[in-house]
Amino acid sequence: MEINRLYINPYIRLLFLLFTIIGVLLINNIFAYLTYYFLLILPVFYYSGQIKKHVQLLLFGMIPVFLSFILLYIIVLNGKDGGWDFIFLRTVKLIIITSAIQLTLLIPSSFMTTTLKKWKIKGEALITVLGAFTVWTDVSNRAQKILTARFSRGFIRERTVIQKIKQFPFVLIPLVIGVLRTSTERAESWEQKDIIYLMEINESDSIKTSLFLNVFLLAASCTWLIISIYFFIYN
């Protein structure tokens, strides 16, 4: 069987997330955060083939948060409740935590059921979680269809980012209605096909994983936890 480098062991995923969050809670050292990010998190994203999605998170998630901090603490509060050091520290902490959550939940679709079942998610809870992972795909696809329809009718003159942002109020209502309808139809289809029963009797797939990726992630996470505890006790 071919080794799939995208697959991270489900238990290592949870340990990585747990150890990362504990480390962030124990220390407030921006140099330690950046070292952990560039030596562990970023290489794992690259090696597992998920770097593009991570860059999208940074561009559309973390940069707006950073700018919001600047607006609030520097412009509005004039640095009274926190200066640039405060902003950089909080932003880097958010990047570390959100990156850990993203890496934990970026599960390839072919391994989704196996991973969730190893996390002891069964029955209706398994179906609910699987459905939750498909919501964003539904939202993205339906939003693109609505924008395309408005463009073809002449409501949008140019397909620029600014024009798409301006269309948000007109897209929101049909988007929510469409996603709810699709979710209801999917749930009814799964119920008719007795998906829960099929999930329960189906054995977890045998997946030959990348030993290097899993050992590296586990060892680095444990090292991060030990260093964090050390700094917490002696500093």
Which short descriptors sum up this protein?
235 residues; mainly alpha; 10 helices
Describe the structure.
- There is one protein chain.
- By secondary structure, this protein is mostly helical.
- The protein has helices at residues 10-26, 30-47, 51-76, 84-105, 112-118, 123-152, 161-166, 168-192, 195-201, 211-234.
- Helix 2 packs parallel to helix 4 (84-105).
- The longest helix is centred in the middle third of the chain and has 30 residues, at 123-152.
- The termini are far apart.
- The model has no long low-confidence stretch (mean pLDDT 76).
Question: What topology emerges from the helices and strands here?
Answer:
Elements: H1 10-26, H2 30-47, H3 51-76, H4 84-105, H5 112-118, H6 123-152, H7 161-166, H8 168-192, H9 195-201, H10 211-234
Helix pairs in contact: 1-4, 1-10, 2-4, 2-10, 3-4, 6-8, 6-9
Task: Summarize it.
The chain is mainly α and 235 residues long.
Radius of gyration: 22 Å
Total of helices: 10
Largest sheet: none
Please report the distance between the alpha carbons of the first and last residues.
Answer: 49 Å
Report the uncertain regions: none
Order of helices and strands: HHHHHHHHHH
* Percentage of residues in helical conformation: over 70%
- Which percent band covers the strand fraction? under 5%
Output mean pLDDT: 76
Number of strands: 0
Helix and strand content put the structural class at mainly alpha
Q: What is the molecular shape?
A: globular
